[in-house]
Specification:
4% strand, two-stranded antiparallel ribbon, disordered C terminus, 284 residues, mainly alpha
């Protein structure tokens, strides 16, 4: 009997081919690598000596992972190469970089000292953020895979990369402000409060704009282009100061925007969120 006509061979021939697009998944791998390095730096930190250098490196890698996460999805959408594999791989990387790393960071820097005699409450508080982040990612994947979903222009719940970015940038600012004292002072409890609040926001039903429409063919108004150019100039001139203060402000504004968004008029929301496509690109 010809082996090519066997049932097993027939099933192999009809098995769907897995599509793994190189560039988007390479960027996702960069996201995952940053999360792993952040975890190793958090473990290496000896906070008893007041040396926060490894923690600052870990925070930098968490923020770098946010950039990789921003790029991988955008590259996939611009190239029309979104795939189920990329979506699942992205969620796995996000869970490490934006779920495990921030939760472990806050536990290592704050909760471990607060609950030094009884560590179980500290573990539980940190795990709340991780579990809520995992639920947030699982819900996103289910909604994205639903028929006729189309990805949508809104995120349901606060995105976990933005949550991690807020925790990381806020902790980095606190370390920067208290660097001479070799202690975080009373402000060290702020990341714990933020962590728990973000946990609730991630699994909430509040909608946040995804800004997926922003791309190479997007056109902008004169005012928005002028403001963007001036903002870029500020970043280039005062990037050191802006790095510490503007990042937590940016993520905080995005968090607040979702809360006040339903109370903003449609005209203002359209001006903030939507970018018109170039007419020539639409014709093409």
């Amino acid at each position: 009997m010809d082996s090519r006509s066997s049932p097993s061979a027939a099933s192999d021939s009809t098995e769907p081919r897995l599509k793994i697009y190189f560039l988007p998944n390479l960027l996702t791998a960069g996201n995952l690598f940053c999360g792993f390095v952040a975890l190793t730096k958090i473990v290496e930190a000896d906070l008893a000596t007041g040396d926060f250098s490894p923690i600052k490196v870990a925070l930098g890698f968490i923020l770098l992972a946010c950039i990789f996460d921003l790029l991988d999805g955008r590259v996939a959408r611009m190239g029309g190469i979104e795939s189920p594999f990329g979506r699942e791989f992205d969620s796995l990387a996000d869970l490490i970089s934006f779920g495990v790393a921030p939760a472990f960071l806050v536990h290592r820097v704050v909760l471990k000292d607060v609950f030094s005699n009884n560590p179980e409450p500290g573990w539980f508080i940190a795990s709340i953020y991780l579990i809520c982040g995992a639920f947030r990612l699982a819900r996103f994947n289910c909604l994205a895979a639903a028929p006729n979903s189309g990805g949508g222009k809104d995120f349901l719940g606060f995105p976990i990369p933005s949550a991690a970015g807020l925790v990381a940038s806020l902790t980095l600012l606190i370390i920067h402000l208290n660097e001479k004292d070799k202690s975080l002072g009373p402000w060290k409890y702020l990341p714990v409060v933020v962590l728990l609040f973000l946990s609730a926001m991630m699994v909430s039903t509040i909608k946040y704009p995804s800004f997926k429409s922003l791309g190479l063919r997007s056109v902008s108004t004169f005012t928005k282009m002028l403001i963007s150019a001036l903002a870029l100039g500020l970043i280039l001139v005062w990037w050191r100061t802006i790095f510490f203060y503007a990042l937590p402000a940016f993520f905080t504004l995005y968090l607040i925007y979702g809360l006040i968004r339903p109370r903003i008029s449609r005209e203002v929301r359209r001006e903030i969120e939507e970018d018109e496509e170039d007419e020539q690109g639409e014709a093409g």
